[in-house]
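Morning, I've got a small favour to ask if you have a moment. It would help a lot if you went through both lines with me. Thanks so much in advance, here it is.

***
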Amino acid sequence: MNTKEKIFDVTLDLFSKKGYDSVSLREIAEEVGIKKSSIYSHYPSKNAILIDIFEYFTNLFQYDNLLNSKDLNLSDSNEMLIENPELFYHKGSEAVKKMLSNEKNLKICRLIFIQMHYNENIREFFQKEILEKPLVFWREFFTVLKEKGIIRSDSNPELLAKEYYSFPIYLLLEISVKYDDIPQSSMDNLFRQTEEHAKFLLDSVRVK
């Protein structure tokens, strides 16, 4: 691990536990084992490290092979989506679960949830990447199912998307508040509950 990577990891750990505003560049440097001035060789400011953390996290969603698999294509020609939407959800759930099994990624989630009310950049990232983009995806998911007659014609894709997605967000927020270091058992339980909830919701609007 080079110095910039150490700065990244140490800063993320401190931000996720103490909050962005409570961490100084001097503290980061001490934890890394370098002089404060050495940080400027890699980052011009503390905020630049935060932006780098967010770019890293954004790229995970954008370039992850599992999340961008053709199995998760929302086209109405996707046989898995049409014939077995529960399996479609499971595939996506497993992809996210694998990504969040990485401790670094969990720390970023905790940082976002805990600090979004105190930092404008964090709030904007949460709004765009954690709320808006996934809701667009799930709205399209239910729109395709509605158009194909899999769910009832009176179903509202917008409301269903919010209901579908809000439950796992709540669970993740709950354990982010509870733990400094989120145990894997809690994450396993989160994904088990979200799949149960997804099946329950889909069954409630499925055409019998």
